[in-house]
Amino acid sequence: MEDVRKTHSSSGAKKRKKKKSTNIVVRILKGFGIFILSLFLIIVITCSIFATVLTIYVLNFADTTTTVSLDKTETSNISRFVYENPNYDEDDPDSTEYELYYAIRNTNRHVAWADLEVIPQTVQDAFVYTEDERFYSHDGVDFKRTFAAFVNVFVPIYGDRQIGGSTITQQTIKQITGDDSRDSIKGMERKIREIFRSINVEKTYTKEDILQSYLNIVPLGTQDYDIIGVQAAANFYFGKDISELDLAEAASLAGMTSSPAWNNPYDSIENNKIRQKYTLDHMLDNGAISEEEYYQALNEELVITGDITYSSAAIYDEEDRDFGPTSWFMDAALNETEQRIADSLGISVAEASQRLNDGGFTIYTTVDINMQQKVEKEMQTRSNFTTWDMSVDEDTLWSGFIAMDYQGNVKAVVGGRDKKTESRIYSTVTDATRSPGSCIKPIASYAPALDQDLMTCSTLFNDAPIEIQTDEGKKKWPVNYSEYGDDGNWSYKNLTTIEMLQRSLNTLPAQLVQKMTPAYSYSFLKDKLDISSLTEADADYAPVTVGGLTNGTYLEELVGAYMIFGNGGKKYDISYVSKIEDIDGNVIYEKTDGYKQAISESTSYVMNRMMQHVITESNGTGRYAKLSNCDLVGKTGTSSEWNDLTFVGCTPDYVSGVWIGYENPSKIPTNSYQNIGAIWKNIFGDVAEKEKHKSFDQTFEMPDSVEKINYCKATGYLAGPGCSSVGEGYYKKSNEPAVCSGYH
Fold first, then answer.
1. What is the pTM of this model?
2. H or E element at residue 363
3. Residues 388 and 350 sit within 8 Å (Cβ to Cβ)
4. Going from the N-terminus, what domains does the chain have, and what CATH number goes with each?
5. Counting Cβ atoms within 10 Å, is residue 26 exposed (0-12), middle (13-18) or buried (19+)?
6. pLDDT at 476
7. Per-residue confidence at 161, pLDDT binned at 50, 70, 90?
8. Which of 16, 255, 619, 637 could bond 646 through an S-S bridge, CB–CB 3.0 to 4.6 Å?
């Protein structure tokens, strides 16, 4: 019995152990099944999210991609710069809102147009069966070829043989739009745009329309010559009209398309013969030619002329005329346009320049054509600068001038005094950095200090130096300079802010910079006013107090900084171009109304009225610029050693400035040249006197936050009943001084 019990006990234990093992296996299998199911669901959900995102991404392109116009392909290599017509009358049907300012195209590009009916069928077939065998059957995109090209990138099932995925429709769109990004992400975006555009084009145009456009814009150039379209190619390579080409010549041209620079018969007849055979093979396979025609064309000896004059047939009218060298304004507009196109398309400036030359863009400039022509004429008039007989002495003085409105739109710019004979040359306005001298004071010390309520227009300051640390120890600095170049003594008199500014004394700016710190003034210039020429070494007393900057400033940026004194303290970007459209009329750039509030509206107006004293007072440094019928505020600037003279002026409608100096900086003989204020007046005075808001009662509008009050000249306080010597001042309502008691 005992053995039986042992046997039963052993058997039960084995069963329990087996059952336990089975449960463990079940749990493992169950857990593994849950894991697999969870993983499957995660993959499904992830794929669904990806598909949704991809669908939205693709549909966004469908929504934003419009049909490409084939109507513009005849003149697609012309880019037009236009300006607003000052005589535009919307009620006159013959009046145009914009006039052509300049037209550019690639002068090495040779284009000639041919309608499809004059292009032989053999030429049409040669290109179709070389580039897109299913052209007449697909709807703009050959998805079979596209998929094969995509697969071949990862799995080279076709070996080294290139599988092109682009149809003739897609290639046409690529040539018209210039949308040909090679970057991986941007390239994918471009391909999606291209697919939707192709589908839309096929819905809008016939196959004949598309083929005609393609044959007229396909690149067929050499390594040295840019030949566009079959007509120009027939002219250049064979000295024939397109209607005269035979099969061998047609196949020669069509075979070039994969790489024209290396496969053309002008540079390499050997490469071209290989490609010619490729074309003839495809034409034979598709039944476009017979075997007899195949061998006859293959054995024909091509006669290459390479006649560039014959291939230059013009298809242009107004835009084809010789515009001559670009103007000073056009130089700046071209520079900006190329940068804007580069930024928009994500390409280099060099590539953008090529795109611009290849054409199709319409660029809306900010130029005032009448002002530009007027200023150019005045800058070339020697008597506007000199005070002696030019027939006796040589005048080698350089100068630059620029005027813009208070939104930063440049209206006129001249980068030199001589008549311009070359395009895109060195400009003293946009390329030269020179010392601004005392023109730095309103923007680096007075304005930021007034904005922080460190003074009012009538605050009294002592005409005394500050102490700064130098390598030789502490020294008193800075000295004052007279307008005749002699060092002036410190008077140690108490003078109002207005008096300090109108006489351009150096002591007050130094005291203000000391209170704010040079680093603050440096940051204000760089961050608030966009002065780009600054270096870290300029965060010091001399640079921000008297304009002793390491590199100086661009006149363009200096004048642009002064716009804050005529528009309520707003700093806008400086622009020569307001809008850029591509060939389809799509806006790729448009200037916005965005700005930086550099100083408050009240600070802006008080500074404006303070700078009026620089012009109107008998001892004001800008008195020679004073106008008869137009309000003017401004500031003169003189660099050390009198190497640079600058004047920046604000009239009700424009802010403008002029600079003079020598190519190699040296002292300007003040007895030989007119005062810098007078030079500005000679150049721009007539324009300013005719401004829309020139009259003094229509001048800069005073904001509600500013009050006009008389002040006591003895104390700088607001004038009281007992004050005998008073002046007219403008004050922020938030920072008005006390009233003078009359006990002086």
1. 0.75
2. strand 362-365
3. no
4. 73-320 (1.10.3810.10), 433-698 (3.40.710.10), 704-744 (no CATH)
5. exposed
6. 93
7. very low
8. 637
